User: Fold this.
Amino acid sequence: MNDKKIFLPYKAITASRKEVNFKFSLDENTNSPLVINEIINLLLSKISNEINIYKPSNGDIIQALCMALVVRCKIIDYDINKIEKIVDKTIKRAFSDAKKAEVLEPLSGNS
Assistant:
């Protein structure tokens, strides 16, 4: 068994210019951290664009993301119950990593 841990560093910049630095733990069976990074970028970029147009609430965004995840899981030709367990484990690990993320406030004031 491979005990090597794989991490995905990810930086997000908020609308208020806060920098949030994540270090996500990836599953040992991860095929491509680069692809995961690109999918995160695509999803967050699209959400940001839609926020500017439709002004959805954070709750609506979270619901939509959860439902899209479930749709994607259901259309995979695999046991939905097993997928649910994988998703549950993955989301818990991602939330745990998010709680440890470093948040940097934007510099302000006179220099």
Remarks:
- The first strand starts at residue 6 and ends at 13.
